[in-house]
Design a protein that fits this description.
about 350 residues; alpha+beta; 12 strands; about 45% helix; about 20% strand
Length: about 350
């Protein structure tokens, strides 16, 4: 019982420290006061890129003008969520010898509408964000990359004003670098990302994000009011707070931690009851012997030592076995840990 309790307590401690480390990771974007919702334009009414561009331009402009809205924007794929359209594409940096497709740099390719970076508080590291002329018919074809792209593929060189060639997009001039976003999970490294103005990649499905101090119901009500003026038949779906998406992304580690904590507490309670029961039974059986020892001159200290030393022998044996078991358990759950070694001395 002591060995099992110790083993489970150490395992629970490792998962607690792991979860604390995970929860302290900066996701790279705002996690409060932002409501997201999915909008899908049917091809039957929005064939081609022009009507899609016009619809989303009007939508963002009107939602941003609503009372209580601080910022509004949209992205083709929402962080920490399965929602959206994802592209993982190779690209070529202008001036670099053309490589085979397998050796080319790769990045996630995302379309954003004006206000997305401000709404999500994704920091601008250098350069500028998109303006209302970028990507339009007579405007420049541009892109913004994240820090991972800048560090991984440009090394010490400044990526600003460099041209990247993407098969589905053509030649794009990099005008800005933004901070990394933990798109696939807090425990995973940020992936390389290339952002382009929506006008360069007009998709029917976009994830609208709205920053507001008001509740979800109030934000959704305002967006529905705007939609009635643009397309009364168009629904919104997948409404969620960004903080809920963040909470859901760590749901499995949180469940693992809670489960092992529960088992460890039960084992510790059983061990405490078991050790007490064994010692109590042992003392009850040796009452006559203890009385005889005291009659022959044994003091309270010697009698106490007689009882406790016997219990400690068994307990220490359990501690040794439990420590070995905890070491094996730590290695077994190593894939569940984040920022904590399986043999973390402080936890032990």
């Amino acid at each position: 019982e002591v060995a099992l309790a110790l083993m489970l307590l150490v395992g629970a401690g490792l998962l607690i420290r792991s979860f604390v480390n995970l929860a302290s990771v900066d996701p790279g974007f705002r996690t409060s006061r932002v409501v997201s919702m999915q909008i899908v334009l049917p091809d039957t009414r929005y064939a081609g890129g022009a009507p899609k561009r016009q619809f989303y331009a009007d939508l963002i402009e009107r939602v941003s003008a609503q009372p209580g809205t601080m910022h509004a924007g949209a992205v083709s794929a929402l962080p920490l969520s399965p929602l959206g359209t994802q592209f993982d594409v190779p690209f070529v940096i202008d001036g670099v010898t053309d490589l085979s497709s397998s050796d080319r740099p790769r990045a996630a390719y995302r379309a954003v509408l004006a206000g997305y970076f401000e709404t999500m508080a994704i920091p601008l590291v250098k350069g500028r964000l998109f303006d209302r002329f970028d990507g339009r018919d007579k405007g420049p074809r541009v892109a913004i990359v994240n820090e991972t792209v800048a560090k991984r593929y440009f090394s010490a060189a400044d990526p600003l004003n460099k041209v990247v060639k993407i098969p589905m997009a053509g030649d794009l001039t990099i005008v800005g670098v933004v901070g990394d976003v933990k798109h696939d999970g807090l425990q995973l490294a940020a992936r390389a990302e290339v952002y382009v103005p929506y006008y360069q990649l007009a998709l029917g499905e976009m994830q609208l994000v709205v920053e507001s101090d008001d509740g979800v119901e109030a934000v959704v009500s305002r967006v529905k009011q705007v939609l009635r003026g643009l397309d009364a038949a168009l629904p919104i779906s997948k409404v969620s707070r960004i903080e809920d998406l963040l909470s859901t992304s760590v749901a499995q580690p949180r469940f693992n931690m809670a489960l092992l904590i529960g088992l460890a507490c039960c084992a510790a309670l059983l061990a405490a009851v078991g050790v007490y029961g064994v010692v109590s039974y042992s003392v009850a059986r040796r009452t006559s012997e203890i009385g005889l020892r005291m009659a022959l001159g044994a003091g309270a200290r010697e009698t106490f030592r007689l009882v406790v030393v016997g219990a400690l022998r068994v307990t220490l044996a359990g501690v040794v076995l439990g420590a070995l078991g905890a070491a094996l358990l730590g290695r077994g759950i190593a894939s569940l840990l984040f920022g904590v070694p399986p043999l973390d001395v402080a936890t032990f």
